[in-house]
Amino acid sequence: MSEKILVVDDEQSIVTLLQYNLQQAGYDVITAFDGKEGLNKAKAESPALIILDLMLPKMDGMDVCKELRKEQMHIPILMLTAKDDEIDKILGLELGADDYMTKPFSPREVVARVKAILRRTRMFTQVETVHDTDKIIVGPLEILPEQYEVYLNGERLEFTPKEFELLLYLTKNKGRVLSRDQLLNAVWNYDFVGDSRIVDVHISHLREKIEENSKKPQYIKTIRGLGYKFEEPKG
Q1: Residues forming a β-bridge with 229
Q2: Could you tell me if residue 235 is inside a domain?
Q3: Where residue 111 falls among pLDDT bands split at 50, 70, 90?
Q4: Residues 75, 50: contact at Cβ < 8 Å?
Q5: Domain total for the chain?
Q6: CA atoms of 197 and 180, how far apart (whole Å)
Q7: Computed over its alpha carbons, how large is the radius of gyration of the chain?
Q8: What pLDDT score was predicted for residue 185?
Q9: DSSP sequence for 162-211
Q10: Same domain, yes or no: 114 and 139
Q11: 158 and 116 part of one domain
């Protein structure tokens, strides 16, 4: 059975282009032309992934993303934006988008990103189901892989799916220096040179949530010129 992709964009030409290329790649495609229709179809159809435009009538992409995450719908989201604006990209990632692309884009690259996100989602789910039934404890930090839950000093923290996957990968590789490209490949599963700023944004989010002082991190250390290393806090 083919995986279902929801494309939400108010430009008919873009929807038609994406629909054709995704169908050629073997996906079932459903479409919506405004934010409210997109949100309703996401809830009704439970697609494997959503391609979501940022600027939409009735309800913009940010609000759609926010609403889905608020209702604990962890559908992967690839956000599209016509603006080459860092603020928009960061906001999208903060609200729970898994990736972003700026218009104009190559349909082939969109399909490649979709495949990478879905492959990573499948692999991650399978690994967690089979191997990670036990909790991971690092100092006062507790991670329950199967439940997608994180506790710090007994208090539950909220994470987007991608933040959780990144934290889990870091803890599993505690003490190892991991480059941005390694993290990009492991967590986002890109088969091509991606945008490593996605990693930096997510590392920043993790620090805000788990570090006592995000400016002086005890868990996630920056190794200048190399990448990041997860350590157990001292003391």
Answers
A1: 177, 221
A2: no
A3: very high
A4: yes
A5: 2
A6: 9
A7: 18
A8: 80
A9: HHHHHHHHHHHTTT-EE-HHHHIIIII--SS---THHHHHHHHHHHHHH-
A10: no
A11: no
Q: pTM to 2 decimals? A: 0.63
φ, ψ of residue 32 in degrees (nearest 5): -150, 150
Look at residue 96 and tell me whether its pLDDT is greater than 80. no
Higher pLDDT, 98 or 107: 107
Among the candidates 106, 123, 140, a domain finishes at 123
Read off the pLDDT of residues 171-197 as tens digits, 9 standing for 90 and up. 989 999 999 888 888 887 654 445 677
The residue written with tokens 């692309």 in the block is: 101
Q: What is the CATH number of the domain that holds 162?
A: 1.10.10.10
> What spatial distance separates the first Cα and last Cα of the chain, rounded to whole Å?
52
**Between 30 and 96, residue with greater pLDDT:** 30
Structural domain containing residue 59: 4-123
The residue with greater pLDDT, 216 or 190, is: 216
Closest to 102 (Cα-Cα) out of 116, 113, 118, 115: 113
- pLDDT of residue 146 exceeding 80, the answer is no
Q: How many CA atoms lie within 13 A of 131 on its CB side?
A: 7
- State which H helix or E strand residue 24 sits in: helix 12-24
The length of the chain in residues reads: 235
- Is the pLDDT score of 135 beyond 90? no
Sequence-ordered alpha helix ranges (H) in 61-196:
61-70, 86-94, 107-131, 161-172, 180-183
